[in-house]
Structures are given as structure tokens and as C-alpha cells.
Amino acid sequence: MLLELLLLLSFIVLLSKSATIVVDNVYILSRFFNIGTMAIGFILLSVSTSLPELSVSVVSSTVGEGAIAAGNVFGSNIANILLVLGAGAILYGFKIRKEDLRDVGFVLLLTTVLSAYIIFNSSIQGQVLGGIEGVVLLLLFVLYVVYTLLKKRVADGSNNSVTKHKALRAFLLFCLGILLVFISSGFVVEYAVSLASAAGVARSFIGATIIAIGTSLPELSVDLQAIRKRHYGMALGDAIGSNMTNLTLVLGTAAAIHPIDVKISVFIAALLFAIVANMLLLYVGAIRGEMKKMSGIVFILFYAIYIASIFWLQASELDSFVP
Question: Which fold has domain 2-321?
């Protein structure tokens, strides 16, 4: 047990260092391409850190378990806002540019409502989230990427100090950093589950906390490092961009591969908390323009309430799904 604890701490350190590599080199790439940190956080970081959700959803949909893909999307989105940004606010605090939040947050809220409507409508009508809806979500992802690139380009010549050689090196280090983030995240989850089981913690609670947070570890580690280095736009772009990616690219891909047949009762809590999380972030950004420690505490409390709700509503289901 002592060895597992030491390994857990070692991989947590590796996770933090890997995230630092990612943030530093993404910043260099943003300067080379004349793209703001918010935009590159949305496009490059968000897609990269959403790869765990994408892989889980694709595999689930391929074997006909599309409901797992839908649950994965909304659960990860809640963690990205309430847990990731909440932790960043408590540890460091950060500012939110209102124009960035209006551009991305409003579209994110609309996409959340759209996805919720599709799932609710499908459940009520007895239909499924099929290929047509999946293609629509994929088109929304493509359109928003194009919109973000066109709107967020920076024409200030700030890339003059970044050569092609330096940019190529930054890209390779970024890929290495992302790979290390994924590897270390996987081991952190594995050893955390092992230690929790050895300590006699209920498996259902492990599933609702450690496993659920596991797929959001890339966002958590990368965004905390970005906030620490005062790249606030990059962190916000990754957190919100990951949610946008999950709702469009991930959910759309899963639906396009295999129709998703979900039961409305399973996702009521997740859908409501996803929308509440978006509204909280929009309120804090639009009214206050910054996330302070108290805001972070409120976000974490809401996430704890969400976890408690899932634990209370679906304890028996989690016991059957967690190996």
C-alpha cells in the first residue's frame, strides 16, 4: 500500500510537470500563428484534452452502448466548469474577459440546451439520437472552429520572435506533454482506485468521484497551470472549448456511429447541473468579470451536490458498472 501511495504521488508530480510543458508550448504556438490564447485554448487544447471522452464515447457507441457516451459528455462538462474552474479560482483566482465569455459561453449554453432538447425529445417521442442529429452536431463543431479562428486572429505581429524551427519544437513538445498528461492521468486514477478500495471506500463512491473525475484530469492539470501562469484566456478557452467539443464533436461522432437510445430519468440530474454550471459561469463572468476564491468555493459546493445527487440516485447502477 505504501508503494502504491508513493507511485500515486509520483504520477501526480509527473502530471503537473507535463501540464506545464503543454501550457508553455501552446503559448509559443499561439504567438507563431497570431492566434489569441483563448482561441488556441478552444481549438488545440480543448480537442487534445477531450480525447479521453472521445475515445470512451466512440468505443461505447461502437458496441451499442451510446447511453454511456451521452452520460460521459454531460458528466465531463459539469466537472470542467464546476471542478476545474472552481479549483483554479480557489488556488489562484483569475479574470474573465467579458467579450470572450459572451462569444464562447453563450454558444456553449445554446449548445447545451440544444443537446438537452434532442435527448429529451428523443426520449419522449420514443426515438433515438441518430445519424442526422449527429451530423448536425458535427457541423456545429466545424462552424464554430472556423468562426473562432476568423474572429480571434491577432494582427499585432507578435509572432516575429517565434521562428518556424521554434514553433516546430514547441509543437513536438506539446504532443509529448499531452501524451505524458494522458499516461500520468491514467496511472493516477488507477492507483487512486486501488488505494480507495484497500481503505474500504464504497465502490459506488469511487465510481462517482475518482472515475468520473479521471476523464477531466487533463483539463484540470492543464488549466490550473495556465491560470498559475496568468494565461487566463487559455484556461477558459480549454474548459469551455472542451465542453463545446464534447457536446458537438464527441456526442455527434457517437450518434453518427450508432443511434443513442437514452432513458430520460438517467440524465435529468446531469442535464440540470450542466445547464446550472453554464449559468453560474456566465453570471460570474458577465457581472463580476473575475473568479475569486469565494466563487470557486461555490462552484466546488455545487459539484459536491452533483456528486451527492448522482451517488444517491444511481448508487446501485454504479455498483454494477464499476469493475
Answer: A middle domain of Talin 1 (1.20.1420)
